[in-house]
Structure formats: structure tokens, C-alpha cells
Amino acid sequence: MEKLIEITNMNVKLNNRKVLDNISLTFFKGVSVFITGSASSGKTTFFREIAKRQDRKIKKGVILEDTIIEPGTVRDVLTQDDDYNNVADVIAFLGLDKVWLSKCCTLSYENMTKLLIAKYLIQKVDILFIDRRLQFLKEKERKRIIEYINKRQVTLVYSSSNIEDSLYFPYMVVLDKGIVAIEGKTMQVLAEEKLLKRLGIGLPFIIDLSIQLKLYGLVDKVYSDKRKLGKYLWK
In angstroms, what CA-CA distances link 45 with 48, 147, 151, 175? Predict the structure, then answer.
């Protein structure tokens, strides 16, 4: 697999307190990653450090929880680059045609998030880091956008405390007190139920339900898709 970004021994101190402790992670092309952890795990600090990094070999986008665009209109922001391929598709998919002439400073938090995503998709970044912004969207819309970003062959690295979102990602990283507590394929990480609970992280509802049903012999495996689980139970 092609490496996009390799982080080695990232350390960050704030007020003489170590917030990130020797974080080492590698992000590969085409492998989107879900990052989670408790409120003090270091997720946002990690994304802020990523934003500071200068990467010449790859095109990177970073959307933090407080990232905004103030000057100009939506049209000004999305038509300032030379590459106009698929601009209309991105704009229509994210519903930004409805606020096309609106000033950026007047946009809702949801539309600002969509504008930032559209900007990076139009720029054709290789990898897009989003810290928590999508968790403020409705579940259906969140899933739709995640799938769309992947469809456009952009590697998505997304941070959220909403464990349900992990099911949209093939790879998962759990931070705890500034270190990588566990990482791996999402279903393998979620199988570490005891460790996750010790870290204060629950399981997605469908995973937890499947585990309980499996204990009673009602299903043959752990399901991550509610439709497949329902189909198995009703067959």
C-alpha cells in the first residue's frame, strides 16, 4: 500500500503536561481511518499538530472543529482554483448551490463544514483530516458524506467520540491519555470489548446487540450491518 503520511514519535506538551506521548501512526492511500478516545485522550491536539505539518509530497486538507472561512461568498471560495473538474457535482451533492451567493460569515455551522469539505475535494487533496465536525450532522447525512469522500478517492481520517461512526471505516485508532491504546482493522478493535470499556468507550449498538445474541446462540457471528442481522434473525 502507498504511504501518504507517516507520523513518528509525535510529542506535545501543554503547560508542562504531556498531551501526546510518542504517537506513531501511518496513513495509507485508500484506507480511511476512524480515531476515537475519551475527552482528554489527545484527539484534537493530534489534529492540530497535523495541521501544522508541511507535506510537500502529498496534498493534505485539515478541518478542525473551529475552522472557518470568512471573506467572500461560497462562489468566491469554490471557484478560485484553476481546476474546475467536477465542481458542479461536489456543489450539488453537498447542497451548496442553495447558498451559492451567501457570504461565508453568514453560513450555519453545517454549511460551513460542507463548504470546507467541498473546497478540499475540488482541490483534489490526497488525504483529508476532519476533527469531529461531522458529528454535528444528522446520521444519514454524515454517512452520505463519508461515502462520497471515499468515492472520490480521498483518504479520510476522521475523529469523533460517536463510536457508531466507526462502522463506516475499515481502520480504527483509539487514543487514551496521549498514547495509541489500540489500533487495527475496525472489527478487530471492536472485538476488544473489555479494553474499550476500560477506556470508557462503548460499542456500536449493532455490535453490542450481536455479541449478546451470539452468547445466547441466536446468531452465528457478530454483525455490523443491522439489515443483515435482521435478515438472519427473520430467515
Answer: 5, 26, 28, 11
CATH 3.40.50.300 residue ranges of the chain are 3-192
* Closest C-alpha among 128, 127, 117 to residue 77: 117
The C-alpha R_g of the chain, in whole angstroms, comes to: 19
Listed in order, strand segments (DSSP E) in 15-126 are: 17-28, 33-37, 60-63
SS3 of 162-225: the string is CHHHHHHCCEEEEEECCEEEEEEEHHHHHCCHHHHHHCCCCCCHHHHHHHHHHHCCCCCCCCCC
pTM beyond 0.85, yes or no: yes
User: 172 is written with which cell numbers?
Assistant: 480504527
The fold of the 3-192 domain, in CATH, is: Rossmann fold (3.40.50)
What average pLDDT does this structure show over 173-195?
93
Residues with Cβ within 8 Å of 184's Cβ and at least 6 positions away in sequence, in order, are 171, 172
